[in-house]
Design a protein that fits this description.
The complex is a heterodimer of chains A (about 100) and B (about 425). Chain A is mostly beta strands and about 100 residues long. Helices cover about 15% and strands about 30% of the residues of chain A. Chain A has a 4-stranded antiparallel sheet with strand order 3-4-5-6, with no helix packed on it. Chain A is elongated, with a radius of gyration of 16 Å. In chain B, α2 packs parallel to α7 and α2 packs across α10. In chain B, β17 and β18 form a beta hairpin. Chain B is about 30% helix and about 25% strand. Chain B has 2 domains: about 220 residues, FAD/NAD(P)-binding domain; about 150 residues, 2-Layer Sandwich (D-Amino Acid Oxidase, Chain A, domain 2), CATH 3.30.9. The chains are: A mainly beta (about 100), B alpha/beta (about 425). Chains A and B meet through β3 and α1 of A and β12, β15 and α9 of B. Chain A: One of its GO terms (molecular function) is sarcosine oxidase activity. Chain A: One of its GO terms (biological process) is tetrahydrofolate metabolic process. Chain A: This is N-methylglutamate dehydrogenase subunit B. Chain B: Belongs to the SoxB family. Chain B: It comes from Pseudaminobacter salicylatoxidans.
Chain lengths: ~100, ~425
Amino acid sequence: MRIACPYCGEREVGEFSYLGDASPKRPHYTIDDGTDPVVLEEAFNEYVYLRDNVAGTMREYWYHGGGCRSWLIAERSTLTHEFKSVQAAPGAGAAKVTLQGE
Amino acid sequence: MKYSIFSLAKAAMSGHRGWTRAWRDPVPKDRYDVIIIGGGGHGLATAYFLAKEYGIRNVAVLEKGWIGSGNAGRNTTIIRSNYMLPGNVGFYELSMKLWERMEQDLNYNTMVSQRGIINLYHSDAQRDAFARRGNSMRINGIDAELLDAEQIRKELPFLNYSNPRFPIMGGLMQRRGGTARHDAVVWGYARAANDLGVDIIQNCEVIGFQRTNGRITGVETTRGNIAAGKVGMAVAGSTSRVAAMAGLKLPIESHVLQAFVSEAIKPLIPGVVTFGAGHFYVSQSDKGGLVFGGDLDGYNSYAQRGNMPVMEDVCEGGMAIMPMLGRVRLLRQWGGIMDMSMDGTPIIDRTPVEGLYLNAGWCYGGFKATPGSGLVFAHLMARDEPHPEAALFRLDRFRRGAMIDEKGQGAQPNLH
């Protein structure tokens, strides 16, 4: 695989690190906000352990550690390894909290 | 037809024209008591044990391609039971004991060769960790020997003992470990299951589940609908895709693992050797090729092929302990799709969908588990309760925090 980094151009996959599916978002909660613990547990169980494990085009995080050190979001087919798009994703990779209503 | 030296001699007399099919090619019936999805080693072993140990003979194994065309034909054929944690220790030793009598049980030469497996260690800390693992094995009745560098040198004189960065200080040996012939395991189980009445239906892909009031009542396939009392999934690599048809979301990611075979050379490596400071393992097949592999590629994939960086990494690991590898040409390379569970341990359990059973999450260690997996999955499906040696391989263990993290890494790429 070769990944077309928006900053560096097309580079071989060995320069990149993989994080995985970019879709799941960390559940939003604050201590004592009154959310039912069962709901919280369910949400975290899903976020931490369960996977869609997409067979097809997946949005996923890659980190260009061997180049510009940017986080990227790629759309890639897990069936063929073909990249459909690669975009910069500043601040990605860190646990992103879903805000209520989002 | 029973295979023996006499049947071989008799067939030889008639120019080997007397051999018959090893298993039938049946047309699917309208209904089976049990349908197993997936005609790999695990699925066929499950069908065999259902018929042999649990008396359930109205069983079909559905395979979308030909049997053994998935991971059963894409592994590095290593068998071992050098595990440490409760849950794993008993299960893999059960499997090891089944390997030891497999050829007699199946009347089939599966070429089980207990030539030993050595995990090399390269630091004091790693020696201590291996000693602990070895002790855990021994108190559970499994053979383990901690060897020092001199003992390793006697067994494996060809390794590089002058690597200053990763010195070979010794290794943990399980002499009962070794290799088996992967295709023969598939064929042996297929033939034995067929003899007990199991229908092995190839080129039959499951494309949906039939449900009545939530309960599974059958499967939709490319060869028509088939009713079933119970349905078991043994489709590691594609588990998420099949489970999604029943509305399940599982703690599994599919990743690609590559393996390699060199050109054939004269007998060199007596057993299986693993490099402890990187990820590299190697054995020598009976044909003479060096069979080796290493890490996952590290990204989700269903493509059954990998990329160059991991090939380089595997070969670097090999060169670190066996510099002579640089003189051998690579003959073949392939990728298999691993069911990576979140804790690195398999899942053998009922699912929330009544009548649907799950055998999944084998990560990169499914081959050695083949007979044990078949037995415990058959037990689960026949009795509706887990086999005692697989009682901890539950689907809900993640939610409960009762994970079995033998290596402390699951599907997460940066933990490998």
